[in-house]
Every structure is written in structure tokens, then in C-alpha cells.
Batch of 4 targets.
Target 1
Amino acid sequence: MEQGQLRSPAQGRSRKSRFVLRLSGAALALSIALPSLQTPAAANGGACGTSQGIFTARGAIGSIKAKLARHESVRILAIGSSSTEGIGASSPDHSYPAQLEDDLEARWKENVTVVNAGRGGETAIQTIERLEAALKAEPFDLVIWQVGTNDAVNGVDEERFRALLDQGISAAQKAGTPMILLDQQYFPTIKDLARYERFVEAVGATGDTRKVSVFSRYALMKGWNSRSPEDLRAMLSADGFHMGDRGYDCLAGGVADAIHRMTSQPVAEAQVQMFATARDR
């Protein structure tokens, strides 16, 4: 289960991800897929790509776009359990929030702070208490809520989980803060796959109903496994459950591209495919 201690984002990192985006067609939502490509990244534990659709955006993030136009700092709250905290990474610098911060600063050439509010072992009800408190304490331009793994594996009632998703979304909307839901991880030893995938589906369905964007970590990681179990293992830490440095790197790059597109394109009218290319290490 997702466990660990809260860590603050480190300073002074230098990051490296590169993606190529291609715009096509018109759609009501933004769907992003990462097709598998043969790139130099394969030598470092497999390319980030997958043919699975991994992101659905519902609406743009106009507040961030306006801030960037005024050259103002952007603050993002990354909240959740150990996958946000960065358990499995070799250092706090390699957690996904830390790498996301670097990716966005590299893209936008503006100051970005991604607050790492990950706390290992939490279920949704525990995270919601901290989410509500954080949103009341200070303003954020975006919340990324990583949710659902511990609820699925710890026996939380499915309907209760759906109600908690609604509660967390309502807290963000009351604060006027856009939200991205980051769904459950995929791992090779899921014991009750049918139950687990119902929890994954609950995140997607709730996002659809409440018009909240969803980044599917589950689809991303399952796509790696479908391509090759060795590719998935290369993305995981030694415990075979949490991501390692490479996995968090890929996750951060994908989320950064999704956010960037939502602040720079009329996503309600566009469908985007995202192609992973080489990452300078």
C-alpha cells in the first residue's frame, strides 16, 4: 500500500523532458495518447509512450493562461498519497511533483511552484480533509488530486468512494480552483482486478459527470505492461508497486504536456495526440 512521509519539493533542479505535440480535428474533450516510439529513452528503462488514451481535458485553465501573460508566478497543489509524496524515488527531486515543476518552468519560462502535499497510506477521506484545509488556507491555480489506489486495495466501499470524489471536487470548485484527477496506478500483482478496475472507472465516470479533467495513470502504466512487462518493471521501484525515478519522470512529463496544452489551446475544440521523444538525461 502507498506509504511514507510528506516531503517538500526540492530547489535547484534542472530538468530535461521534451515532447512533440500534434493538433488534429475537433472534439468536445481533449484526449491525449502516448504512442510507443523507438527512442534513446528505451535504453534508460523503456520509452514513456503508450498507445493508450491517457488524458481527457474538460475545459481550459484560463486563470493560468492569464497569469502567464502577465508574467506572474503559478502555484499548483499536488495532493494525494505516496505516489505524490514520491515513495520509490531515489530522492525528493525525482518525485513527480518536483519534476512537474521543472517541466512547466522549462516550458513557460516563468516561476512555477508545485506544492507536494503527498502523504503515504492515505485514503480519499483523509486526503479530502487536507485538501479542504489547503484550499481555505491559500490560493492555488490548479489542484492535481492523485486518488483511489489505497481505497481500492483497502476495502473502501465503492459507493462511498464515489461520494468522496464528489466531495473533493466540490471543495475545489467552491474555491474556484481547476482540478485534474490523477487516477490509480497499475501494478502486476493486483489481487481483485475486477474490483480495482471499478474504482478506476469511478474516477473517469465522476470526472465525466462533474466536468473535471482526468489523467489516467492506470492506462499509461497498463499500456507499458501491454507493450512489455519488462518495460513496466523498468518504470517501477524495487518494491514492484511504486514508480521509480523513470516512471515518475514519464508521469511528470505527461502531466506537464497536458497542463501546457490546457493553458495554450482552445481544448474544447481540439483533439491532441502527444508523442514522446528522447529525454535528455
Target 2
Amino acid sequence: MKTLCSGLGLITLLLWSEPMAAQGLPVYDNTNFLSMAKSLVESSKQTVELLKTVRFLKEQKDNIVKVNDVLRELKAMREMAKNHETLFRTVQGDLRDILNSPYIRPEEIRQVSTSFELIMTTALDDLDFINVILTSDLLKMSDAERTAILKEKEMASQEMVAEITKKTARYQDIISFRRMQDRINNREIQY
């Protein structure tokens, strides 16, 4: 039994010590090295293609920004045209009704005409300025700067519409009040 145990111990020792004793030079696989080099070359080609794609996408983004600026300019111009049309329509219709009313005194006609004329002159000057901005290259403006000015002028035209609407309503209220006052003063009294 002792010999059997010592024999098994010796066999176990030999089996375990054998892998530890086997040392030598490592073996390199040239095909593995070549495939790694090919992989690096392919990666560099993909990187170059990605850089080209990034440049292309940046150019497309710039083009989209330019188109967006043009669309903003067009929207601002459309809004300004609508506002100026409202101004002209108000002046043509409502101002004529106000001035032809028998309840507006002759000395007030000049004041009413002047206040409406000032607003219309400002509107026409703004239109001339916008025409210069859009057609002339003398100012050398970027699309963003031009859009900002157009937005500013759009807001000004909205303010002019609000102002002329307020003035028209005020003069119509004056006419209504004077008409009511005239009816009260000239009514027939029945007792």
C-alpha cells in the first residue's frame, strides 16, 4: 500500500511538473500579423470615408441653414406685405369714412389726415429700405443679418397696424359719441 501511494504521488508530481518544465520560444503566426495589418489599413480607409461624410454633412447643414434663412426672409416679407395691405386698406376705407363724417369738425380734419399720413409715410419708407436691403449688394450683409432686419421691420409694421387700428377705432368712437349726442340734443320731446 505504501508503494502504491508513493507511486501515485510520484506520477502526480511528474504530471504537474511537466507543463512547468516545458519552456521555449513563443511561436508567432505570420497570418495573424498580416490580417491585423489588413484590418488597420481597412480601418484607416473607413476613417477617411467617415471624414468625407462629415465634411459633406457639414456642407449640407450649411445649405439647410441658408435655405432656412431665406424661408424666414420670405415669411417676414409676406407678413410685412399683409400688414402694409391692411394699412393701405384702412387708410383708403376707414379714413375716408372718418373724414366724410358730418361729426368731424373742419379743424380736426387736418389733424386726422396728418396722423394717418405720418404712419403711411413711415410704412413707405420702410418698404423702400427693405427694397434696398434685398436688391443691393452695397451693404454686404449676411443672410442672418438681413433676416434680423426684416424681422425688426415686420415687428414695426405690426406696431403700425396696431396704431392705425387704434386711431381708427378712437375716431369712430368719437363719431359715434357725437352722433349719439346729436340725437339726444335734437330729439323731439313728447310730454
Target 3
Amino acid sequence: MKYTAIAAVLAGLFAVPAVQAAENTVNLYGIAQLGLTLADDGKTSKLLVEDTGSRIGFKGEELLGNGSKAFFQIESAVAMDNAGASGFASREGWLGLKGDFGTVKLGRGKTYFDLAQEGFDGFNGNSTMINSLLIDGAYYRMNNSIAYETVNMDGFTGKLQYGDMEAKDSNVSPYALIGSLAYENGPLNAVFAFENQKDLAPVVGNGSKATAAGVKVRNYLLGAGYTLPAGTNLKAAVRLSDIDGAKRNTFIAVLAHPFGDVTGRIGFTQAGDIDDVENTGGSYLAVGVDYPLSKRSIIYTEFSYARNDANAIGVNGAGEPTGLLGTSAGFSLNQRKNSAWTTGLIHLF
């Protein structure tokens, strides 16, 4: 009798009505991706096993009635080649509400500027080309974020977020205000994005990129893309950067074309000179192909080459050179010319 009563209680606890089960969902998702890279910085050639963005996450939502939902997302970095670089909730952490009014959320994650800019990566994040985009104080991820997204209005969507204000004291008033306006209709898409930062600490958290306290950063991105009937996708964007009055214009272009099941990709970035001071920019080229082994597994190979102008190379406090563009994270950035050949595998789950 005792065990029968316990079984009845457990059955009652776990007997969720079918309607309620349909209204509450929690999903596990992620990407496992590793690449084998031969990197050359002009002085040393090195073989690397690189995690190119593996992650695991949980997201879920609950119906609240009247078309509204509560939702959450927790996403963690998984460095498959170096466990020390992993971290729980190190990528995304959001909690919010969405409905006919749009989406309101609190937390931490990629900024709307970065998401707009990543649309011009061209390699779906499986390459080091993103390194050529995240320069000149581009934020990447923002802590303590308050964010709002409109619903889709005839192809237009607007996004706005404010954050990293909690370190305010009598000397500094840090903040970041970031937003974007996008349009998508069939084969055409366009986007405008901006970010305005002030008094941010040199290190703002995992994946973030900012400047020293007292420095103001303003970045603007204007870009568009179009897919031709044959499947060829063309995208181009211009980014205008202003770091405490020092201005730089950067041009980004990507091309992708399907050849049967194989997709060929070309990406190019040209970072202009700072305030027209000669030889303070650089250029970046990435060429590659990818092939789907299944609906969830992709294999790719890519060659990338970065060239920093002579005056783009500076020296840090330790007397070490610092570059602008690099093909392989943590290895090639500090040299004027560097290249990398990467072959990798991606699995989505």
C-alpha cells in the first residue's frame, strides 16, 4: 500500500495535461565545430586544432495567453580543443516577453550591431573572417542589456538595446546604446546599424571588445544583399568608425554561389586609413567551399589572407607588436602579413 501511494503521487506530479505540455517547451540546441588549420604569420608556420565556435544552449517559452509568451535562452561556449576556454552562459543569457507588442528582454549576448555585421561574414561563422569585422571597438557581446525588438512590419524590423551602465561612479558614466533597422523582402535585404559606447572598461567580458574608460566609440553600418535567380548571393556593406575622434571607413563584400551541393564563397574586407593617415589600414581575403554531408553535418575548406599596412602595426605595453587584421585567432594577428588554410567539420544538433 505504501508503494502504491507513492506511485500515485508521482504519477500526479508528472501527469502534465496535453494542452499545458504543448504550451511549455524547452529545447536543447548547439553546434560542434572543429578545424585543422595551417597558419603562417610570415615568421612561423604552425599546425593548429581550432574550435571555430562550438556551443550548447537551452531555450524555452511558455504561452501566457492573448498571443504573449515568456521565454528564456542560456547559451554556453564549448571549446572542444581547450576546456579552459569554455564557460556556462558565457555566450547568451536572456529572459523576456514577446507578443503583438514585439520582444522585450533582459540579459547578455551579441549586440544588434554585431548581428547586423555578421550578416556580411559570408562564411556562416565557420571561419576566421569574423576577425576582419570585429575591429575598431566593435562591441560583440554586451553585459547588463535591456533590449527591444519590433514585430515584422511589412518587411521592416527595428531593434534597440542599452547596457553596461552598472560600473557608474563619481568619475565615469559608462553605457552602450546599440540599434538596427532592417528590411527583408524576397531576394532583397538591407540593414542600418549603429553603436555608441562611452567609458567602457578595457575588458567587458567573454567575447566583448571595447576601449578604455574615457574613450567614446561610435560605429555605423550600412549594407544590403541580393540573391539572383541562379542562387548567387551578393552582399556589401560600409562601416564608419569613430574612436574618440579617430575615424576609419571599412568596406566589406561577400559572394556565395551554389555549384550543385557545393557552395563557393568569397569574402573581402578593406579597412581604410585612420583619419587619412597613410598605411594605417589593411585588407583581408577569404576563399572557400562547403559541402553538406547531411542535414546536420557540413564539411568545408577555406584559405584566408590578411595584410596589415606598415603603420597599422603598433606596440603594446610589453613591447610586443599589435596588428589590425589576423587570419587565425591568437596566432597571426600581431604580424603584418599572415595566412591560414583551414579544413573543418560542423555538426548541428
Target 4
Amino acid sequence: MALRKGSCQLQHFLDANEISPAEFARRMKVSESTVSRWKKNEREMTYENAVLASRILNCHAEDLYDWIEVPKGKRQ
């Protein structure tokens, strides 16, 4: 089996930590539009951004996305 990223769970963690997207963007040192793109799955976070986000949101980096098991060699 292999894994692929599913939907971004960023909004869930923002809500749970009561952090606005604007405040999160400020702490991440990225634009609000970048945060919006992450939440809409229009752009994936880099590993470095996921680690920083996880530190801000008190979670693990892998928690920021749903993970889908796919048969090896079938990256859909």
C-alpha cells in the first residue's frame, strides 16, 4: 500500500485552537490567500510549513491532511 494526501484539515485545527486564518497567516509568515488555498486543497503545504503549522496548532504535521491508502503503483 501507498499513501496519498486527501483533504486538508487545517480549518478544523484553526477552529479547535480559536485562531483566525488572518492570525494563522501572520504567525506562519504567509499571505492569507496562501492559507485559503491550503484550506481549499488548491495548494499543498510544504513539509516545512506543515511542521511549523503543527507547532502553532498543537498537532502532528500528518494530522493536517486526511491520508488515503492506495494500492502501490496506483497514485490516483
